[in-house]
Design a protein that fits this description.
By secondary structure, the protein is mainly alpha-helical. The chain has five domains: 154 residues, 3-Layer(aba) Sandwich (Rossmann fold), CATH 3.40.50; 70 residues, no CATH class; 75 residues, no CATH class; 54 residues, no CATH class; 84 residues, Arc Repressor Mutant, subunit A (Orthogonal Bundle), CATH 1.10.10. The chain contains 24 helices and twelve strands. The N and C termini lie far apart (61 Å).
Length: 539
């Protein structure tokens, strides 16, 4: 990191730096232990392993990592840690739809996720299976993190001191929580959920504290028996908001972000953390995703976009770019946003070398390239450019049809790209595969080329005549000028150039929007474009 980057970071308004400054303010001079030695600032992300990792998991770990790296820049390299915490002591409330052997889970409802057999038959428990999926998921994207399991901490006794603290401050916690609950819920609410000695289920029952230091409580078991039992050593689980607060205090969490739907939880867990003698972490409350109709995304409705779907139609970098921007604004998450995200990512990446350092630090790609440390000491690939935009690639594939192949696309790219070899352009080659999938699933089924109007037909004939007299190696700029001149000629009756381009898109490409036509003609080839015009003129 250069001195210029360090200096510019101090005043950068990029949101990761704004968030990181909360931590600089929290720890003037850095986070230190009792002896005055620097210790790592702890960032946390949480995960509920009742289901598989999804795009929300990715966004939370990515955004937290961006703040982590920004803090390291602001402080000149102070140590940090990122914990990915799995809440796998939670009781299973319902059987997920996307698992085999549902009867295995149905027979174990209410038990901690880490004490339920794995319906997939591959791991020690259902939680162990999903935790392994989480780690594989995070490793796939190169995240630097430490995995921590709630069941390991509860069962090993690592949380015992914190659990005693909950019992010591039981009345204060009840005073925080009861006013937030409906009257019926207040009658049965308890911050501590004991594990039934008879059924192994996590019980939602009132408790009486007998001995806080021994962790001893009294409650009525599922079979009606009154039981005195320790809550230590994995024999209890805390209610969600209390558990979150206890975890912050026990682990020493300094930063955690969450979605807007947890706004109340942040407030109440913060109060509980203070009651336990701790300090709530800093954090960002981000907006939630919406579908293409502006409705909130629901896993049960299935109206969202999975990370696998995004990576089928776009690149990993484009997903990171889309998630980086404006975290406090709601985002539509559907296939229609992918192409623009891909092209904007590369536009921002290409800009970096020419930008002064202050603008670089506001460039999303600068942050993304450093998210996992690859670019910490070097260029990180800034300034690389795609020879063809993804939008133009989609137009090419759209014309080639639903059954176009990778080899066909590359044969056309040879008209436009120097050294048109997939091995020489791996990023572009990946996007060719994405474009073929996107065209197959979304574009080809909707393309409808309309018959040109009389004036449009005259303009198309004129364009065909100009192209016939143009060299095959004409530049995209020259071809664009030819198209412009025809559109500006009053003889063809277009009120604006936009009307002319719209006619080209609708009659030649079958779409209401499209690329720079000069670039498209250079890519598709003059002879092939003339064939398209001939088809349009034939109606």
């Amino acid at each position: 990191m250069t001195d210029a980057v360090f200096t510019a970071a101090q005043t950068s308004k990029a949101w990761p730096f704004e968030e990181a400054r909360k931590l600089v303010k929290r720890f003037p001079g850095g986070k230190k232990d009792a002896e005055g030695n620097l210790v790592p600032v702890l960032f946390e992300t949480g995960y509920g392993p009742s289901g598989l990792p999804h795009i929300g998991t990715f966004q939370e770990v990515l955004r937290t990592t961006l703040v982590r790296r920004a803090y390291e820049v602001l402080t000149g390299g102070h140590p940090t840690r990122l914990v990915a915490f799995s809440d796998d002591m939670d009781g299973l409330r319902k059987v997920p739809d996307n698992v085999p052997n549902k009867d295995v889970l149905a027979a174990n409802l209410g038990k901690p996720l880490s004490r339920i057999p794995d319906p997939f038959g591959t791991h020690e428990s259902f939680a162990h299976h999903n935790n392994a999926m989480l780690r594989d998921f995070l490793d796939r994207f190169g995240f630097d993190y430490e995995f921590v399991s709630a069941s390991d901490r509860y069962n090993s006794g690592a949380f015992d001191d914190a659990l005693r603290g909950v019992l010591r401050h039981f009345d204060a916690i009840m005073g925080i929580m009861l006013p937030t609950l409906r009257e019926e819920r207040r009658k049965t609410y308890s911050p501590v959920l004991p594990v039934s000695p008879s059924t192994g289920e996590v019980l939602q029952v009132p408790i009486e504290v007998i001995d806080a230091e021994a962790g001893l409580v009294r409650f009525t078991d599922a079979d009606g028996a009154v039981v005195e039992q320790s809550i230590l050593g994995g024999r209890s689980k805390l209610q969600w908001k209390v558990d979150w607060a206890m975890r912050w205090v026990a682990l020493g969490v300094d930063y955690e972000m969450c979605g807007k739907d947890l706004t109340d939880s942040v407030r109440e867990s913060g109060k509980i953390a203070r009651a336990l003698g701790g300090r709530p972490p800093e954090g960002l409350i981000y907006e939630l995703f919406l579908d293409e109709n502006g409705e909130k995304i629901s896993k049960s409705k299935g109206n969202g976009l999975t990370i696998e779907q995004w990576l089928t139609y776009g690149s990993e970098e484009s997903l990171g770019f889309y998630l980086f921007r404006e975290p406090k604004s709601a985002k539509s998450l559907h296939p229609g946003v992918i192409a623009r995200a891909v092209d904007e990512y590369w536009q921002f990446r290409e800009k970096i070398p020419a930008q002064p350092v202050e603008q670089q630090l506001g460039n999303p790609v600068w942050h993304l390239l450093r998210a996992n440390g690859e670019a910490a000491g070097g260029s990180g690939g800034e300034g690389e450019a795609l020879p063809v935009t993804y939008g133009l690639l989609l137009n090419l594939v759209g014309v080639l049809g639903a059954h176009a192949t990778r080899e066909q696309v590359w044969s056309y790219l040879a008209n436009y790209v120097e050294n048109a070899d997939p091995a020489a352009h791996p990023a572009l080659d990946g996007l060719v595969t994405n474009a073929l999938a996107y065209n197959r699933d979304f574009v080809a089924p909707t393309l409808r080329r309309r018959k040109p109007e009389e004036n449009e037909a005259r303009a198309l004939a004129a364009l065909d005549e100009e192209l016939a007299a143009t060299s095959d190696d004409a530049t995209a700029e020259l071809l664009q000028n030819i198209v412009y001149e025809i559109g500006k000629d009053p003889h063809y009756g277009f009120e604006t150039l936009r009307d002319w381009f719209k006619a080209l898109y609708e009659t030649l490409l079958g779409s209401s929007a499209g690329p720079r036509m000069g670039s498209f003609i250079a890519l598709y080839g003059i002879a092939n474009t003339r064939a398209l015009i001939a088809e349009a003129l034939e109606g």
